[in-house]
Amino acid sequence: MKILIIEDEARIARRIERMIRSIFGDEITSIEMCDALDKGQEIIAKNEIDLLFLDLNLNGQDGFEILESVVAEPFHTIIISAYKDKAITAFEYGVLDFVSKPFDEARLTKACQRISNKNATETGMKFLAIKKKGKRTLINISDIKYIKGAGIYTELFLKNGQKEIHNKTLENLSVLLPNSFERIHKSYLVEMTTATQIIVEPGSKYTLELEEGDRLPIGRTKYRTLQEKWFS
Amino acid sequence: MKMKNNLLIFLSLILFCLSACEEPESRQSDRQTSGNEYAIKLGDNPGWSDKNLDVSKWDRYENVKGKGVFWFRLGSVFSDKASLIKDPGIMIGAAGSYQAFWDGVFIGETGRLKTEGQSEIPGKYIQYYPLPDSLTKEGYHVLALRMTSDDMNIGLHAFFEVGEYQEMIREPLELSLYMFLLAGAFLISSIFFLFVFLNARKEYSILIFSLICLIFCAVLLMEYLKWYYTYPYPFQHTRLVIIGWLHIALSILVPLYFMVQFKFPWKKYLLLVMAVSIACVGLKFDGSYDFGALVQNILMWGFSTIVVAYSCQKRDKSAYIVMTGLMLSVAIIYIMPNFYIPWINVFDVSIFIGYAIMILSMLYVMSVKRKEERLAYEASLVLSERLKNELLKKNIKPHFIMNTLTSLIDWVEESPKEGVQFINALADEFEVLNQVADAKQISIEQEIKLCQSHIKVMGYRKEITYQWESVGIDPQDVIPPAIIHTAVENGVTHSLPDESGVITFRLTFERTKKYKQYTLQTIAKNRSANLAELPKDIEGTGLKYIKSRLKESYQDNWEIYSEANDLGWETRIRIY
Known about the structure:
The complex is a heterodimer.
Chain A: E1 2-6, H1 10-24, E2 30-34, H2 37-46, E3 51-54, H3 64-71, E4 76-81, H4 87-93, E5 97-100, H5 105-113, E6 127-132, E7 135-140, E8 144-150, E9 153-158, E10 163-166, H6 170-176, E11 181-185, E12 188-191, E13 195-201, E14 205-210, E15 215-218, H7 223-230
Parallel strand pairs in A: 1-2, 1-3, 3-4, 4-5
Antiparallel strand pairs in A: 6-7, 8-9, 8-12, 9-10, 11-12, 13-14, 14-15
Helix pairs in contact in A: 1-5
Chain B: H1 2-20, E1 32-33, E2 38-42, E3 70-78, E4 88-94, E5 97-102, E6 105-110, E7 126-130, E8 139-148, E9 158-164, H2 165-199, H3 204-228, H4 234-261, H5 267-284, H6 289-313, H7 317-335, H8 346-394, H9 398-414, H10 416-436, E10 442-443, H11 444-462, E11 465-471, E12 478-479, H12 483-494, E13 495-496, E14 502-511, E15 516-523, E16 525-526, H13 540-554, E17 558-565, E18 568-575
Parallel strand pairs in B: 11-14
Antiparallel strand pairs in B: 1-9, 2-3, 3-8, 4-7, 4-9, 5-6, 5-8, 10-12, 13-16, 14-15, 15-18, 17-18
């Protein structure tokens, strides 16, 4: 696991580093630290990182531009900030967690655990930031019908029929998205309020039908939970 | 809406003034005045009082000054209305001492004529004498004055008017009554605004206004003096000269007042033009008193209009009202004289009504400006309060406090000894801050202490060595609180340490005759290597705080420069 810490307070950066070393132990392949966003972006461009710890207020700069730019990237972002009131907005943009300062190791551990198992509490994500021809745009989560995994990136199928590409993997997105998104297949994440019925076809083949007639395959192992959770 | 109301009040005040000055019904239509016919002859002969004397060989202009007794005869043909005058009397205005004969009959004398061995005792300039009914019938009449005139600055002249004796004395006094009321109002205004000025020394517009009111009062008194003070004839010249100077003073002060009130940008140039043109007019019309004053007034209105028009064009609302006032007063001054009102010089009345309107409009501007000042003052109070809050908030802002606490926890967990020192440094900073928070100005020593404790705290947080150097500090000097501290904060935020991990702040103080200056040099690398890339307003709210504090203490008498240089970043605060 490659980790980047962007934090302009040296003492705090070292504290984060110390804690995540104890949290992830041998999983860590590298930890890089920097104290300014431009340097951070250079590192992001050069290395494929897996997890970013970001301070929102860097050297007097307001952090929301930073936030928008990092949430469009494939990796997860955990915000560590003094400004608790920005937490809601940060979650709306799709960060994995928001840790307010001052913090201890227990809190940081909880944040890191979100990566593997989706927490019962929703993050409250409202937008997905995507990069399109070098520009960033925000897509409203409520405009998404379903998401198809395509290796290291995902395809977003929107209600207006358009298709967009997102840099995060289906795994990473499934952690962030609200509970109404259900993983029905290893390659599909569906907004279940648009689902109408499960069609059972011969040969134990299950298909989910959506409001506008889209049909998506349901994974063999997922059928039972889906049926119980959404159609009983 | 409010503007409209103000305009209404303003106009009704003007109407009130006009009504106060309204002329009583004309009762003087049967008055008879001296015409153009007059003759002068040096010498003395009792027979020259004769009504039917042939004066065709007499002179009209003769230099009789100081040459002893001469005769001055004025003839006039009375109309049929003359017989309507009951209890007739004559008003004689003459620049000399004289014995007066009406149609050859001695009617009175004033002063003492100069004779051999006896000097002249100046006669009264205006005198009233009763006349017998029998001598005021329709037809030709002659006033013969046996005169001497030693003091002739005014120029030899005489005139008379025949009418009802008592009425002729009373009516000018009735008109004077209104004028003196006006004069009293201006005297009180003048005194009031003088007191206002004495309590607010820097507001010269108020002093100018007080002077204008005083001069205006003086002009009214001097102008209407002649009706209640029977002064010796040489004083007529003195009086006119005084009036002339008063008008000159007005024609400078009134436009000057508007220039100050409306902050006219080319004050010096216009004053120069005014001085030159007023001097020219003064020289050209020296001696022609009324006309000279009239031209001076035209200049005054002209220059005032230029100033006010400039402000109108700047959309200053009060300028519109003043412009209305100016136009109205010009209209009254130059239109009113077209209506004939006997026995008074209509210009003498109209000019005062015009002045009164103009002064009203000045008062209006002053009240508007007072209101603006009050609002500005209130705003400044709010600003002070806000700055105080901002100062207190500085160190409880989440960014500061939470980052500090996080670092602090870390220090305590990892190396408790240093952690305690960190806490002490933080306590120091809070203590100084607490001491200075309420003050508008603090000693530079306190300010330096504040900066030093701040960089100590930041040193623990950033793990950078911050150094402090002071050069040429005058410990007696005072400055607004936390302005250097704010510049230091900015330095901490925007600077990178050099190779040895050090950032140095050097505060230098200089004092010259014109200003004192604090220079804070941050010796470090700027975060952005390319200076051009640095945002222009790199210091954002910090710089705003410094500027507001400077404005609070020094109004506009300061400058601040904040720019990158070879050493790092330089912030210069110059106070004049």
